[in-house]
Design brief:
The chain has two domains: about 90 residues, no CATH class; about 100 residues, Roll (Thiol Ester Dehydrase, Chain A). The chain is flat and about 60 Å long. The protein is built from three helices and nine strands. It has about 210 residues and is α+β, with helices and mostly antiparallel strands. The structure holds tetradecanoyl-COA. The site of tetradecanoyl-COA has 23 residues, from helix 3, strand 6 and strand 9. Tetradecanoyl-COA binds next to helix 3, strand 6 and strand 9.
Amino acid sequence: MQFTLEDITADEIDRRRGVYGPLTDSVRDLIDAVIRTEVDAADIDVARRRIDEVVADLRSRQIDGSYGVRFNTDAVGMPWGNAVMGVRNAIAPPVRTVADREGVTAEFTLGAAYEGPAHHVHGGVCAMVLDQVLGEAAAADDIPCFTGTITVTYRRPTPLGALSARAEIVDRDGRKKIVRGTLSDADGVTAEAEGVFIVPKNWSGPSNLK
Ligand SMILES: CCCCCCCCCCCCCC(=O)SCCNC(=O)CCNC(=O)[C@H](O)C(C)(C)COP(=O)(O)OP(=O)(O)OC[C@H]1O[C@@H](n2cnc3c(N)ncnc32)[C@H](O)[C@@H]1OP(=O)(O)O
């Protein structure tokens, strides 16, 4: 797994989060608005031109390729392009986990952009969120792991709206960690997952990533 070291302070990371986080929130809101708007075709045309202008402005100075996973010399991580929790990724719901002694928990909202069956979450999105949450549980006491195998059991359709996820390591065997987790709505579990997460063989990044 490749990481990029950035020699910047925690304050600078906070400053950047303060600059890019609100932009990402606005774009996430734009995605939702594009799905749900019913304004006239002429207004859509004006909106499209305005969006194209903003895109041209942002692209006037940009990096090559994807954002990557960056960290500073104190091992503070910036996985800001991450599809599930990235600070600079408007596709990310975002899902942010909180760690405790046994595992990790996340509370988040999946809106119109994540629909599969009518008014319910796309099964692939459920799997994506569970992969991330289980992966973070696997990494909580060590270093980021690769998903080797993940199995998702869909117990009932997951409604769009407020959801939570929970994951814990249940077994360890050498570089392998077996992790189990759940996705839930207010009425209980909608999907369960079990995964084998594998610590990379030749890890060159820092341990105890924050
Ligand atoms: C800076 C801040 C960062 C923050 C990051 C946020 C957290 C990140 C959260 C991200 C979350 C999202 C995460 C993502 O999205 S990760 C992206 C999705 N996953 C991948 O792309 C992984 C692709 N596969 C590989 O790279 C390799 O095949 C891996 C690394 C998995 C194993 O290759 P390696 O060369 O290491 O394996 P080995 O041959 O030495 O075998 C070692 C042991 O493992 C067992 N095994 C092998 N393969 C599998 C398998 N597929 N299932 C089950 N078990 C498997 C094998 O039997 C053996 O067991 P044993 O015989 O010893 O008992």
